[in-house]
Specification:
Mean pLDDT: 86
Number of strands: 10
Shape: elongated
Helix content: 25-40%
CATH topology of the largest domain: Rieske Iron-sulfur Protein
CATH class of the largest domain: Mainly Beta
Strand order of the largest sheet: 1-2-3-4
Number of helices: 10
Low-confidence stretches: 1-15
CATH superfamily of the largest domain: Rieske [2Fe-2S] iron-sulphur domain
Number of domains: 2
Order of helices and strands: HHHHHHHHHEEHEEEEEEEE
Radius of gyration: 34 Å
Oligomer: single chain
Largest sheet: 4 strands, antiparallel
Structural class: alpha+beta
Length: 345
């Protein structure tokens, strides 16, 4: 019998998985005192190192801003593109990296490094808990030395304040040199301009537009343009053409003549930030912008029924010519695109 118990194949394998002694809590590792905690001179040196990283960040942010103007991108010159993007990328990258390195060095050498256990309360916060949280915030300030170490604090504030400067300068320079109101108030649409399919440029007859259909439309004469000029004009003139039952349209008296037999045309450029509105819900007659979910009601002059857009989509007045082709009666009677262009510059 004893021999059978000695045989591993006949032993109870389940009991063998249970350790003789439960694993004990090993506790916290022994605390190692840092040299900066002992010698004030080492502490001051560490503070200067942290501040140096933050100063490097400030210098790099300023350099990126200056480089943007000193070495601009020249149209058609790939060498200036490479130089400018390299300088900006390296400078902005070093500015952000220096903040991270300074913060890491600060935490490793100067902040209190004793191990802590965070016991989370299982219920919602009450007044007492909030007071404790405020006390912990104060304790964190004391332990990090944020208010006490003025050199680190001031250099960090400077680095963080200057780090967005290159982005602000570059994004601000993206604004068009001309007044956007003037640019967006005039498109290629004019009286007699035929509506054409995008991108083929094939003119559209009213009989082609069936009930419930939607067409992506451009001015027929757009295909005479090329390159950047064509793209710029197309970005303003793109239109979505739909056909509804005439009785479904709730047209204002002054716009009764802007549609033809239930066919309506509206700008595709969303009045929020300019994304293309191209999702048409046939059953609800709603147009949806895929970027931020602004929704427009086609039956009521594309008024906004949901989302951040501030105004309806501009309507293109249309009619038919002697050959049955759909044509524009005029240009849009209001600026296309985002509403923020209408603000004072």
């Amino acid at each position: 019998m004893a021999k059978e118990l000695e045989n591993p194949e006949s032993a109870d394998h389940g009991s063998a998985l249970i350790p003789a002694d439960p694993i004990k809590d090993p506790g916290l590792p022994p605390h190692h005192t840092r040299v900066t905690d002992i010698h004030p001179s080492k502490e001051r040196h560490a503070s200067r190192v942290v501040a140096t990283w933050f100063w490097i960040s400030m210098i790099m942010s300023i350099f990126a801003t200056v480089a943007y103007f000193v070495w601009p991108i020249k149209h058609g010159d790939l060498g200036t593109v490479r130089l400018s993007t390299t300088l900006l990328g390296v400078a902005v990258g070093l500015a952000l990296l220096s903040i991270g390195l300074g913060a890491a060095y600060w935490a490793k050498h100067l902040m209190v490094d004793t191990e802590l256990v965070d016991e989370r309360h299982p219920t919602s916060s009450d007044e007492e808990t909030r007071e404790i949280a405020a006390e912990y915030m104060h304790l964190g300030n004391v332990e990090s030395g944020f208010t006490r170490r003025k050199l680190i604090r001031n250099s960090l504030i400077g680095a963080l304040a200057l780090s967005p400067l290159p982005a602000v300068v570059m994004l601000r320079d993206l604004a068009p040199a001309d007044d956007p109101n003037v640019l967006l108030k005039q498109t290629m649409w004019k009286q007699g301009e035929r509506l054409a399919r995008d991108p083929s440029g094939t003119p559209i007859k009213a009989s082609d537009v069936t009930l419930g259909s939607a067409f992506h439309v451009i001015p027929q004469s757009l295909n005479k343009l090329h390159g950047a000029e064509m793209l710029n004009e197309k970005a303003k003139a793109i239109v979505l053409l739909m056909r509804l039952k005439p009785e479904d349209l709730k047209e204002l008296p002054e716009r009764k003549g802007w549609s033809y037999d239930g066919i309506v045309a509206y700008s595709k450029v969303c009045t929020h930030v300019g994304c293309p509105v191209a999702l048409y819900e046939q059953q609800t007659h709603h147009l949806l912008c895929p970027c931020h979910q602004s929704t427009f009601d086609v039956t009521e002059h594309c008024k906004v029924i949901f989302g951040p857009a501030a105004r309806p989509l501009p309507q293109l007045p249309i009619a038919i010519d002697s050959e049955g082709y759909l044509v524009a009666q005029s240009d849009f009677l209001e600026p296309v695109g985002p509403s923020f262009w209408e603000r004072e510059r």
